[in-house]
Design a protein that fits this description.
Helices cover 31% and strands 22% of the residues. By secondary structure, it is an alpha+beta fold. The strands form two sheets. Strands 6-8-5-9-7-10 form a six-stranded mixed beta sheet. Helix 1 packs parallel to helix 4 and helix 3 (86-99) packs parallel to helix 4.
Length: 349
């Protein structure tokens, strides 16, 4: 017979998954989640699936669904210990993606994947999601928090979300009315939003030699983390008054791929001429491009370069729409115009 002592039994915690921590995290975020509920939500937090009343969404409602993440912006949040902003990024990015098709947001679902579940961090992440949902009238209908040691490093996380919105079928914005001569009106971004972070992190760390708590050049004392974690702008309030305007022919959310990668998606096979000099410069891009030695065309492909959303509008109504946006302090700028069939975006400067 063997004289070896009996092996100690294993449990889930010893394998790296702490169920008690997960329950603690859920208890912390329940009030924030419930605060997003309206009359349409008919199931409490913790149900196997979120329930949402859809009995009076319109005459001929069309649901619009979009899923996205915040990319490697999570690495800056983890490195700087700031977990309260990227949740807002996620919600507002998804709202914008649904908005370009004319949709009002209804509900949101989130996914958080972590290497090690720290309840206070999860509470901050989901707190940011819930705050953005509450601000924009979106129900945080459900979500998943997964602790996966061996998949994510201990201090890293991923954050992904799905938003569902609704638009009347006759009001869907799909670019079908875009025509040559239409005017392009831009709305400003507030920074990188949720794209270009792999390049930006390398520039900040390797070329600028900055820590995330160091002051960022030209940013009036704001740290590198504060500048790069500026939340993704939401254009819902700015554009809601124009969603039924027949002069609005298309909208383009400028995300990964920049203007040249996103604007052609809504031009129905037509091209566009764009004046880059029309875009008000943002310090963060000036600093990153200079320090990284990034070529101009590459910068306009990797970053939004100060353009968050583009309206494609009928030429005869462009002055009116631009004036209305300016009066509402949306800071519009005239970018260029739609041309004949393809190929994509050509730069005027």
């Amino acid at each position: 017979m063997s004289s070896e002592p009996p092996r100690q039994g294993l449990d889930y915690r010893s394998a790296g998954v702490d169920i008690d921590a997960a329950e603690d995290a859920l208890d912390r975020i329940k009030p924030a989640i419930r605060a997003t509920f309206g009359r349409r939500v008919v199931a409490d937090v913790g149900s196997f699936g979120g329930l949402f009343r859809a009995d009076d969404l319109g005459r001929e409602p069309v649901l619009v669904a979009t899923t996205d993440g915040v990319g490697t912006k999570t690495r800056i949040a983890a490195a700087s210990g700031r977990f309260d902003t990227v949740g807002r990024d996620l919600v507002q990015h998804c709202i914008n993606d649904a908005l370009v098709q004319g949709a009002e947001p209804l509900f949101f679902l989130d996914y958080v994947g972590v290497g090690r579940l720290r309840p206070e961090r999860v509470a901050a992440l989901i707190g940011g999601v819930a705050a953005a949902c509450r601000d924009h009238g979106v129900a945080l209908l459900g979500g998943e928090t997964a602790e996966m040691p061996g998949v994510y490093p201990e201090d890293e996380f991923d954050l992904v979300g799905t938003l569902v919105g609704v638009v009347e079928r006759e009001a869907v914005i799909d670019g079908g009315r875009v025509e040559a001569g239409d005017v392009l009106i831009g709305l400003p971004s507030v920074g990188l939003h949720t794209n270009g972070y792999s390049l930006a992190r390398r520039i900040v760390e390797e070329r600028m030699g900055l820590g995330w708590d160091d002051p960022f050049p030209g940013a009036a004392g704001a740290t590198a983390a504060e500048v790069l974690l500026a939340p993704h702008a939401c254009y819902l309030e700015a554009l809601r008054p124009f969603l039924r305007d027949p002069a609005l022919h298309a909208l383009a959310h400028i995300t990964g791929g920049g203007l040249a990668g996103n604007l052609p998606r809504v031009l129905n096979g037509l091209g566009a001429r764009v004046a880059r000099s029309a875009v008000p410069p943002l310090n963060v891009f000036e600093q990153l491009v200079a320090a990284g030695g990034v070529e101009r065309d590459e910068a306009w492909r990797a970053f939004n370069m100060g353009v968050g959303m583009v309206l494609v509008v009928a030429a005869e109504e462009a002055d009116r729409i631009e004036a209305d946006l300016a009066e509402a302090d949306r800071r519009p700028f005239r970018l260029g115009e739609v041309t004949g069939p393809g190929p994509g975006v050509s730069w005027l400067d």
